[in-house]
Amino acid sequence: MATIAESADVSPDARIGDDTKIWHLAQVREGADIGDRCIVGRGAYIGSGVHLGDDCKIQNYALVYEPAQLADGVFIGPAAVLTNDTYPRAIAPDGSIKTASDWEPVGVTIERGASIGARAVCIAPVTIGAWATVAAGAVVTKDVPAFALVAGVPARRIRWVGRAGVPLEPAGEGVWVCPQTGARYAESDGELHEVAG
Questions:
Q1: Rounded to an integer, what distance in angstroms lies between the CA atom of residue 162 and that of residue 179?
Q2: b/e for 78-112, b at 16 or more Cβ within 10 A?
Q3: How buried is residue 72: exposed, middle or buried, by Cβ count under 10 Å (0-12/13-18/19+)?
Q4: Strand, helix or coil at 194?
Q5: pLDDT in tens, 163-180
Q6: Predicted pLDDT of residue 103
Q7: Does the pLDDT at position 83 exceed 90?
Q8: 45 in Cβ contact with 27 (< 8 Å)
């Protein structure tokens, strides 16, 4: 069973997974699909048709606009925004009010275990790779590779991080190690991959 605060606005057409908690003043729109053991914080917004995998955490006042797709274990920090309009306008060139049929939403895709920091903005369409970290306040305008730590406006890779989220330390030619877990990673052609054993 899910736990939904009385003040939350959750569409009856949304699917809410087992053991998921939706807190005060959150809004979950029709067609949203939220996995098991997720947390949707106070005042957060989950758009229609958004998919959250299992074990996701959407912190207070984060805005996740459709058609965002979040894999398992994704963290969205407080007041972060995942946008959905490449060329936003309230009115058409002739001055008439734009309607839903006047634009096609594009989404942000976030892969397994990735984290988006507080007040960061991801400008759709972008993909955030598995286990990547977007620093607080960053503005992401292009795809982020797996295990990258990006920061700034626009966001650029400043380090590599491992599954624990801790910055990796160099351990020889193109090899990186996690100081917390001891896991090893190899860098090749601007990408990072885990090394077995």
A1: 9
A2: bbbbbbbeeeeeeeeeeeeeeeeeeeebbbbbbbb
A3: middle
A4: strand
A5: 999 999 999 889 999 999
A6: 84
A7: yes
A8: yes
Distance CA 131, CA 143 (A): 13
Could you tell me the two tokens for 148? 């990258």
Label each residue of 39-60 as H, E or C: EECCCCEECCCCEECCCCEECC
Q: Is 18 helix (H, G, I), strand (E, B) or coil?
A: coil
At position 191, the amino acid (one-letter code) is: E
Which segments of the chain does DSSP mark as H helices, in order? none
In this structure, is the dihedral angle defined by the CA atoms of residues 94, 99, 103 and 106, taken in order, positive or negative?
positive
Question: And the tokens for 101?
Answer: 């049929």
Given a contact cutoff of 8 angstroms between Cβ atoms, the answer to whether 159 and 167 are in contact is: yes
Element (H, E) at 188: strand 184-188
Tokens of 3: 């736990």
